[in-house]
Amino acid sequence: MKLRQLKAGDDLAEATRLFDAYRQFYQQPSDQSAARTWLTMRLQSEQSVVYLAELDGKAVGFMQLYPTFCSVALAPIWVLYDLYTAAEARGHGVATAMLEEARRLGRASGAAYLQLSTAHDNTVAQRVYEAHGWQYDQVFRTYTLALD
């Protein structure tokens, strides 16, 4: 297993493919052009950190984190927004490696904590997160306001 952090100017073909598959998992239509543009913009502006996981030389995992802040803790935090393992690589430690890298990034940057969201029915991912020490928040309720 090899993890590679992407930088602006890197070839994004494999990251685009995996990011597009991740978006399709969440019922979004496939749009590799838009996915590539999104990744390019985030990397060029240093608005996110993106990793690829490679197994036997093939890209099989994708992770994207966004930096932000916690005013209560007076500290930076990271939002692990995107985490995806290709179906053929599940059960091979890809998610574990990416979650450990996210933890390393958070600690190295002095973040107070990492945060993520997943669908209520994504029980497989929930078990993986909880097995790696992530805790379901039972104190705060999250709301979303859709803007047309």
Explain what the structure shows:
The protein has 148 residues and is of the alpha+beta class. The protein has helices at 13-25, 32-44, 94-108, 123-131, and strands at residues 2-5, 49-55, 58-70, 75-85, 114-116. A five-stranded mixed beta sheet has the order 1-2-3-4-5, sandwiched between helices. Helix 1 (13-25) packs across helix 2. The longest helix is centred in the last third of the chain and has 15 residues, at 94-108.
Helix and strand topology:
Blueprint: E1 2-5, H1 13-25, H2 32-44, E2 49-55, E3 58-70, E4 75-85, H3 94-108, E5 114-116, H4 123-131
Parallel strand pairs: 4-5
Antiparallel strand pairs: 1-2, 2-3, 3-4
Instruction: Please give the share of residues in helix.
Output: 25-40%
Beta-sheet strand percentage? 25-35%
Class computed from helices, strands and strand pairing: alpha+beta
Beta strands, count? 5
Which of globular, elongated, flat, extended, rod-shaped describes the shape? globular
Number of helices: 4
- Mean pLDDT across all residues, rounded? 96
The strands making up the biggest β-sheet line up spatially as 1-2-3-4-5
Strand-and-helix sequence, N→C? EHHEEEHEH
Regions with pLDDT < 50 over 5+ consecutive residues? none
